[in-house]
Write a structure and sequence with these properties.
The chain is α+β, with helices and mostly antiparallel strands. The protein has 28 helices and 18 strands. A 4-stranded antiparallel β-sheet has the order 2-3-5-4.
Length: about 700
Amino acid sequence: MAKRRVSLTHRKQRSILTDMLPFEVPPTFSNRGYYRFLRDNSVEIEKGQLRWVCETDALDRTMRLLFGIKAATPINADIVTEWGKEKTRRSVPYNKCEMATIPFNFRVAHNLDGRTLSVVHPRNQVAVASFYATHSALIIYHTSISEFSIRRPVSVSRYAYFKDKLHEERLDSAAGLEEEDREYEQLGSYFVYRKYRNIHRFFESYKYHRSEKKYDAMVQIDVSKCFDSIYTHSLPWAVLGKDQTKFSLDSSKFTFAGRFDALMQNLNHKETNGIVIGPEFSRVFAEIILQSVDAELLKRLAKANLRHKVDYEIFRYVDDFFVFYNEESTQLKVFETLQETLKGKKLSINTAKIKHYKKPIITEITIAKERVSALLNDEINPVCEEESFTDPAKLPKRKLVCGINANRIIICYKATIKEAGVTYGDLLNYTFAIIENKIEKLFKAYNESDRTDWDRKRLSNALLAIMEFAFFAYSASPKVNHTIRICRMIATSVDFAHAHGLPYEQKHLLFKYVHDNVIQQLEKNTMSEHREVESLYLLISLSQIGREYWLPVSALLRHFLIQEEEKTGNYIRPAGFMNHFSVTILLSYIKDKVRYVKLKSFVEAEILAKLQYMKAHCPNDAETLIMLLDLVICPYISKTTKDAIGAIFGLDAAGIAVVQATNDHWFTAWGDKFDLGKELDAKRSREVY
């Protein structure tokens, strides 16, 4: 399918859509509603003022909540003329906003101990967007000084490119317009990146192959816990120089580097050790620091009479260094010098993850990918074949041909992983990308066939075989990015089965198989300290296949770590409060179904207890505000609960009504505002690493 290019305008709020949230947030959660609120009301930070446009004081209460503006702080109103139109611009000095906040942290599976990702406070997101808009040229400059970096911002995005079916379906109604509510919200990133958005593209590139011809060996070096270890003050050191920063501490605070440093501290509870993980802006911050490491490393090696692209060649992808060399002494000198340079930025090398390669310089993952590609292309090859009649007057029959032996694929796939010495996690993204393409090819071949009963049966059998292999592979590495892909397979298969009128029996076989495997994964991967989000995707996917496949209450209780007391029959959760994602997805799943009424009452009580605790102990916590805004417009909780939520935040019935009227969609998409297929498609453009 040919790509279509859509022009973008340079809005200050645009990065709210692209660079603020971790890729791993659940499909029900996004910044779309928040972005619309900021855009429609021209909310911005400019010239030391927080400003918005509103003819009345209707937004004042919401803005005080959003930005932590005290009740005693007056809000100024001025009549301004922009583009020939008079507007009432309301404003508050930026220093009257409470910008030192606590991010909403959540855990995802990663290695043995998991990884903490962060959703920063909505008010800090506006501050980051303002910083981007003001300093984009300086960001691009300071990420362009390294000869080593192969993933860096080079310009602000001017176009978005689309090739998914969702875009094709929506072109005719919005052709020629900037599609703010559709494609505009599926942008990949605020900046254009060069050269490689994925490290494996580097392994397959001309640059990599050219270096292999030129050098005899390669070593891969990883920075240890890079984002957790970054000292925020090292950005001013990188840009201005360490001594200059220390001797001119006050004046450095008003520079680009000083402001970026303060911004990163404010959104992370004033922490200077470590930066939030997940948002794209954190990668930009880290890139500026690592570019200074590159530049210093290059100078130090030159002083040691080692010439780049002659004695050695270095490529850096985020925090991974790939060093090509001929002499072992060169490799040792590069290693020692890099270690010293990183130490000056309070960073270090992860010696446990160093990998050495001699010619042929090919990684284990590249070998495995080649074998997996060959395996899946051989075993899954759906086509539409023509069967001619002897009578030329009759049109030839067109039948779907796609015999898939899932058992054989599984055995060969396991053998590939074992022989190549890689893990399932190393290959699953690549494997599932191929499988998604195979599913699309299967649907295309079916549409080209005569769509007889036999064709429908072959389609159903092929989908079952693909799902059998997909769930087998997924069970070995149920990480978020793999979960997103398998959910996309489920969603497209379910939608296709409904849209093309597959008989009930065939749909039931597919849906029942999906249902049983999802339950198996939920039972196997109950929520834990290291795994909070992955299964929530599966739960949402399951809700799409129909009422016959609703989960029993007992399965939901087990998965969300809720217990029933023997004596009273009341629900309790010894593990503590559920986080915002668990609460909202559970509410989205149980809705107003009668069978879940007791569970919903427990969830509503849990919400009130959590918000009371959070408001008392963490008033500037991102999760607290996000919960308030999302839950007061939730269609599935009672008015009594909403009133109680408002009371916790000092809002009477009129105050709640004002906040509800301000925006009907903040972060969680409730009811018919949620489209799983659209949300999973939107994830395509944001996949990183």
